[in-house]
Structure formats: C-alpha cells, structure tokens
Amino acid sequence: MLSLNALITASLGYAILLFAIAFWAERRAQAGQISWLRTPFVYTLSISVYSTGWTFYGAVGSAARNGFEFVTIYLGPTLIFIGWWWLLRKLLRVGRAQRITSIADLISSRYGKSTSLAVLVTLLAVIGSTPYIALQLQSITLSFTVFETGGNADLTAFWVAAGLAAFTILFGTRNVDANERHHGVVTAIAVEAIVKLLALVSVGVFVVWGLGGGPAEIFAKAPPEMLSGSNIFSARWVSLTMLSAMAILTLPRMFQVIVVENSDEKHLATASWAFPGYLLLMSLFVLPIAIMGNALLPEGSNPDLYVLTLPLSQGQNNLALFAFLGGFSSATSMVIIAAIALSTMVSNHIIMPLWLRSASSKTQTSGDVRTILLRSRRFSIAGILLLGYLYFRLTGGSGALASIGLIAFAGSAQIIPSLLGGLFWRGATRNGALMGLLAGFTLWAYTLFLPSFEGSFILSKSLIANGPFGLEFLKPEALFGLKGYDPLVHSLFWSMTFNIILFILGSLFSTPRPLERIQSSQFVDVFRLDKSTGSYLVSRSATSEDLFTLAQRILGTNPAQRLFSELAKQQGKDQGLPDATDKVVQTLERELAGSVGAASAHAMVSQIAGGGTVSVDELMKIADETAQILEYSQKLENQSHRLERTAQELRAANAQLTEMGAQKDAFLSQVSHELRTPMTSIRSFSEILRDTDGLDLPDAKRFLGIIQEESERLTRLLDEILDLSHLESGRGQMPLEPVVLQDAIEKSLSATGALIEEAGVRVEKTLPEAPVMVQANFDRLAQVFINLISNAVKYGRGKTPELKIGLTVSGGVALVSMADNGPGISPADRKRVFEKFTRLSEANLAGSAGLGLPISREIMRNLDGDLTLKSSRRGAVFHVTVPLSTPSDLG
Amino acid sequence: MNNPDLATSATRKRKLRDSALLLPLFGVFLLVSPFITIFTGPVTVFGLPLIFVYIFGVWLGLVILARAMARRLDKG
C-alpha cells in the first residue's frame, strides 16, 4: 500500500509542476513566443476538459453497471465535432466577431444584449455547475480514501478546493479581458489532458494484457447481460447521446475552451477529428477494466474506483499512483476551467450590472473599474469553489458519479433551443428565449435536480413520492402521469418540450426590439456580413474624453491609449483623441464587451453616450434596410422596362435597316435595268452599222441618231443619279440668292412650253401681282418646277387636261401648288411617289428614269423648303414650300 | 464560369461542403438509429463481441473520414 504521505507528496509535486508549466507558458506568452502555444493540438487537448473526474472514474462505474451505455456520453460530442461545418464553425465565428466571453454573454448578446437573459443563464449555469464541481471534489477525495481510509475526506476536499482556487485566481485572472486567451491555464490543461489519457490507457493495457491475457479472454469473462446490448438504442441511449451532444455546446467550461479560448478558427478543423479520436482512446479500455474489476475485486467494491483499485489489488503501486494523478488531472482541469467560465459570467453579468446601477451616477468620477472587475472575478472564483465545497459537504458525497454529471448535462442542455434558434432563426426573440429558458429550467429543477437530493433540499420525500398536496399528476418523477420512464429521459422530455414550445411561441408572439433585430442578423448572417459592418449603436451626446476615461478604467491606461490613437489615426488625426463617431463608439463597445460582456459594455457606453436607447438614426437604418430592398426590387423592375423598351427600339431599327437594305437592292436592280435599256439599243444599232454592208446613208444616219439619243439618255440618267446622291449626302451646297418666285415659274413654263402645247394642256395661273421674293437657287428651283409641270403633263391627263398653278404666302413661307385634273395618285402609291425609280403607271415617257420627284424633293429640302403631295379627290396636287427671303438676305 | 477548371473546382468544393454536412447524419444513422440493433446479437469477431467491434469500428471510421474531410475543407 502507498502511504498517504507519499500520495500527498506526489499530488503536491504534480500541482507544483502544473503551476510551473502555467507560469512558464504565461511568461512565454508575454515574451511574444506563443506560436507553439497556439497549435491546433493544444486546442484539441484543451477541449478534452470534457473528460472530467466523472469520466475518468465514473465511465468504468457506468460500464460495470450498464454495459455499453457509457459510450453515449462520448458519441454525442463525436457527432457534434465531425459535423463542425454545421454548427461549431458558426458558433466560433459569432463568438469571435462579437467578442463573446461566455455562454451567458452569447445568449444575452444575441437577444439584444439583454441583461435579464444574461443574469438568468448565469444563475442557471452556477446552479447546474455547483454539483458538478462538487462531483470533482468527490472524485478526488474518493480516490484519496482508496489509499488511506483514515483520512479526513472533508479536509482533503477543502485543501483541494483551496488549491484550485489559488491556481485559478493566479492564472485565470491575469488579464481583465476575459476574451483573451489564458495561455498558462490552457497549457496546463493540455498537459493534464495528456496525463489523464496516458494514465487510463496504461491501466487499460495493464488490465487487458497484464491481467486478462488478451481482449478475447476478457470478454469471455464478461457476464452475458453486460454485453447483451439490450440497452442499446433504448430511449435512454438516444436521450443520452442527444444530451451529451447538447452539453458539449452549452456547458460553461466547454464553451470557454471551444469558443472563448480559441485563437484561430482553423484549429477547429483539426479538433473536428482529433477530439473524437481522443474520446475514442479514452473509452476504448473502459469496458475491459469494468469486466476485470467485476471479476477480480471482492463483492461490494465501488465500481467507480476500479481504475485505482484494480492496479492496487495487484500490487502495482506506481501504476495506481499514475492512475491517481490521471484522475486528479481530470478533476482539477474541469474545476479550473469551470471556475474561470463561471466567474467571468458572475462578475460580468451579475456583479458589474449591480455595481453599474449602484454607482450609475458616479461612473465618470469613480475609481478604476479594472480593479473592481478583477477583484469581482477573483471573489467569484473563490465563491464558486466554496459553493462546490459546501455542496459536497451537504450532500455528503452521495450518489454515483455518473448520475450527478448527467443532471448537470440536462440543466445546461436547456440553453440549446435559445442557442440554436439564435444562430439559425432570425425570428427568435428575447421574450421567446426568456420564456423557453425559464420553463425548461423550472421543469429540469422540479423533475430532476431537486428530486436528486432525495428529500433533503426543498422538495420533501413525501412530495417526491406523492406529488405536491397529494396531486398525483404533479409527481416530479411522473409528471402528468407519464410513468415508466427513466427519470432522466422523463425530465429531458418534459423540460425540452416546454422549453422549445414556449421559445417558439414566445418568439412568434413578441416583437423584437431594434437592437435585437440588429443582433439577430449579426448572428444568423455571420458568414454573409461584411466584417466592417458592426452593431449600429448611435449616440450623439458622447464626448471622446468621456469614452477615453471609460476605456482607460476598464482596459487600462496603455491599451486604451493604443486603441484611441489607432482610432484617431484611422480618422486621419496624427495626435489627440478621435472624434466620437458611431464607429468609435461601436469599436469601444466591442472592446469593452471582451472584458465585461456585451450587456454591461452596452450599458456602460450607453450611459456615457446618452440614453442607451435606440436612436432615431438607428431606427432609420433599420427602416432603410427595408426601404433598400423595396428600392432594389423597383430598380429591377424599371430596368426590365427599360430593357424592353430598348429591345423594341432595336427591333424597329432592325426592321428599318432591313427595309433600307431591300430598298438599296431594289435601287441597284432598277439602276442596272435602266442603264441596260439604252445600252442594249446602242449596242444593237452599232452592231447593225458594223455588220450590214451597203446600208443606206439615210438609214445609217437614223441609226446613228438613235445611238446618240440613247447615249444622251444614258448620260442624263447617270447625271441624275449623281445629282441625287450628291443631294442626299448633303454635299451639294447650292449658292443661295433672292429669287422672284414668279420669274422661276414663268421660266419653267416657257421651258416646258413645247411639251404643254403638244399635249394640249390648259394652264391656269393664279399668281399675285407683287413679286414674291424667296431665298433659293434660281436654276434649282426652276428644275423642280419643270419636273413637276412635265410630270403633270405626262401623267395628269384628264379629258380636257388642265394644270392649275397657285402661289400663296403665309408665315414667312411661300407655297406654290400645282394641281392637275388627271386620275390622281391612289392612296397606296402616295408614299412611293418619292421613292427612287418608282413609276406609278405603265405610261412612261422616255427620258424619265423615275428620279425626278426624289431629286426635286431633295432640292427643296436642301433649300430649307419641302415638296409634298397633298391628298385630293381628283388629280394630283403637289405643294412646294420655300422660305421667303428676309431683308438681311437682300442686303 | 467560362473556365472549365474553375467550374469543376467550384463544384468539387460544393460537393465537399455537402458531404461535410452529411457525415454527422451518417454517424447518427449508424449509431443512434435502430440500425445499430442489427449488430447486438451474441456473435463474436476474433473473440470480441460484435457490438463492441461495431461501435468502435464505426467510431474509428468516422474519425478517419472526418480527418480526410477536414484536411480538404481547410485547404478549400
């Protein structure tokens, strides 16, 4: 047997080693050499604080009693970690973005930085963790009693608690920023993780190969009911797996190591497989140890201590001592982290708000908040450990280790609906979270926690057995008549049911405050949000001096100065304090949140910044969000309208272009046709002249005459085409001069006199006596009139052909109308009149290629006038308009 | 997505993320569904109870798969 002295020496030596490691790591961190302290493996090992003294000793006890059931406690976390992409990644990102300091801070921050929620979760965490801490003290004292039955268990527990308090205060409250890593603590925890794994594996290897003669031999010794698997996939199996999966997220110490102490999100990728692997190794030998313990140790031995008693019974003192240190490591690491996590919560969410309220008017003049913060945290640590010790003393260390642990699990699991809802459901509100949490915790306390005292605390024995006032259906362990289930499953079912229902109903029937709304999008959309967008705390009355004083008091003088000079630099100021802009206030609040939690930081900053309520600007921003969405959709609609319009225009342009292309084709074919006709006759007559011998001179002369005539026609045609293209391109600049319109008309009449006489057309002129002066080109104007007159003569023949020429002046414009009494132009043809090579009827006279009207119109347009065809009942009426010449033109 | 390489790598990444979501569901199916009761019979494998081999084998398999996936997700 080991002597108690040797045991105490060993544990003290181990404790001193841990202090030294923590101290050394802290020194390294201060020197800036922390790269190796931040490896993913240190992170993974620190998460193994999940395996406590309960796991180390209790798992074997559980296996001895219930066979395979113990693995469920590890399968839940395994499933959560291999599914890190779902949940843990988001939790970590939110935790870092919002500078979350604890699980209570997370819930409070998500639901609008609510103080009441923070207080509620903190209280519940303390209530749930106290038995758990007592459990660790119990496991340490139990392990002591194995070696020395005469020892004073209470005294041992007291000194262990005191030692842990000293360690935690020393290394857990060095920095005021709870969001900063505790390098010393984490390193010590990592070392402890290795020690407990090695210890358990050593005992396992010794038991399997040293004692049992191989795995097959050992399992052959197992009683069949232990391996029967009857409890596999029972209601308890499923509940325990779910419970442990929920607990790994919500236990205060797990949140502390996974989220708060995390230094790099990428470490999670490694922990996602390494931590399940660690758990696998921790549980691999549990069943063999339990089987061998049952087989070798005397009847009535405590299965929770097989890990120690089995090597001791075989005289393996050193192995037993190692196992003892492993159990010691498991228990102490849990207590240390839990104390840090809980003290942060208690001081940030209970002490600070109380202090703020009591000294609310003195914030700007009172002393250093830093000192108060650190002191409150240290007192909290001592208080929490004292509470655990008292619990241990009061309950007398009764009950199997495993059941106490599960009660704590079930308590912390009540946070899950609010946590998951907060991370994934935008509509979750503070009221919903409050109602769900209160209902869940009340039912948990009533159906599981209080009955676990077996009548010695609040609920009497008779109440537990018969229900309050003898009301059967309110019996704590058979609520509403639900009987026949394991108490844990029963409690979990009712508490979770009411928790989830009230959480959802409460959220649906309440309206979130603006700050809640902002925080909800900050949480739910954490991967979508730009890093620069922070919470919109808008305050106008803050002065940067006040903010600086506050920062100094909480962060310390140097860090505050650094922060503010950086903020000033960002604003482009080389020295002095930054302006108290929204951004400065936001940054400060976030920095402070790292020290005192979101709710307190918000309260402090708002106190200085005035009111603490949501400002109009903030509301405007929220309204803007909605407006922006509306505006955006409207813009989209407008854009599609515009696109449609453009498309329509394009279609029209395309149609026009196609038409123009067709016109051009038609023009070209017309031109070649028109050129071909004279060419053909020229060619055939010249062939006759060349090939016919003895042609009469008169015939030859006639033929030559035809050839000449056709050549002239060809030349005229080409001249016309050239003229037209000249006019159309606008290059044909005509010299303008004052022209007497009557003269031009007379000139053209005399030029076409022969034609008129030949056709027997009667011309009726109604021209004013006074000369009408227009600004034009005489020859071109005459050309237009000649063209119109000859057209009228050619096509406009009535029975007694007539041509009426009129001249009127109005509004600075002279109008010449030429009307014949012919068949007129059918409405369908009216548009085509001005197209090139259009001949309206078969009546065609040689010499016109159908270019006359287009040319005339181009001329008139070049003269700033126009040529139009008027619709009339009979005959064709053309109108020629020309601008009158002004006196300045004359000059 | 004109670049076919880019398109395939984006598709691969998406598939990887989707399978990362599938892994825990797969674990739930193997360990917390009635499926597990298939392996609770009184059968031994090399002297070890089948259920023991099954639970720890699945566990190890999940660890290995998670490791392979974490490495790729980390790179992506």
Describe how the helices and strands are arranged.
The complex is a heterodimer of chains A (891) and B (76).
Chain A: H1 4-30, H2 40-47, H3 53-66, H4 72-82, H5 88-97, H6 103-110, H7 115-147, H8 153-172, H9 183-211, H10 215-221, H11 224-227, H12 235-250, H13 252-260, H14 267-284, H15 286-296, H16 306-313, H17 317-358, H18 369-395, H19 401-412, H20 416-424, H21 430-449, H22 461-466, H23 487-508, H24 514-524, H25 544-555, H26 557-570, H27 582-596, H28 598-609, H29 616-691, H30 697-728, E1 737-740, H31 741-751, H32 753-759, E2 762-766, E3 773-776, H33 778-795, E4 802-810, E5 813-820, H34 827-830, H35 852-862, E6 866-870, E7 877-883, H36 887-890
Parallel strand pairs in A: 2-4
Antiparallel strand pairs in A: 1-3, 4-5, 5-7, 6-7
Helix pairs in contact in A: 1-9, 2-9, 2-14, 3-15, 3-17, 4-12, 4-14, 6-7, 7-8, 7-17, 7-18, 7-19, 7-21, 8-17, 8-18, 9-14, 9-15, 9-17, 10-15, 12-13, 12-19, 13-17, 15-16, 16-17, 17-18, 17-28, 18-25, 19-21, 21-23, 25-26, 25-27, 27-28, 29-30, 30-35, 31-33, 33-35
Chain B: H1 4-31, E1 44-45, E2 48-49, H2 50-75
Antiparallel strand pairs in B: 1-2
Helix pairs in contact in B: 1-2
Largest sheet of chain A, order of strands side by side? Answer: 2-4-5-7-6
- Total count of strands of chain B: 2
User: What is the H/E order of chain B?
Assistant: HEEH
Domain count of chain A, please report it: 4
- Low confidence ranges of chain A: 530-541, 610-615, 840-849
Percent helix among the residues of chain A? 55-70%
Shape of chain B: elongated
Mean pLDDT of chain B: 79
Structural class of chain A: mainly alpha
**How many DSSP H or I helices of chain A?**
36
Strand order of the largest sheet of chain B: 1-2
Name the pair of protein chains with the most residues at their interface, and give those residue counts: A-B, 41 and 39 residues
Under the CATH scheme, the architecture of the largest domain in chain A is Up-down Bundle
Mean pLDDT across every amino acid position of chain A: 79
Count of the domains of chain B? 1
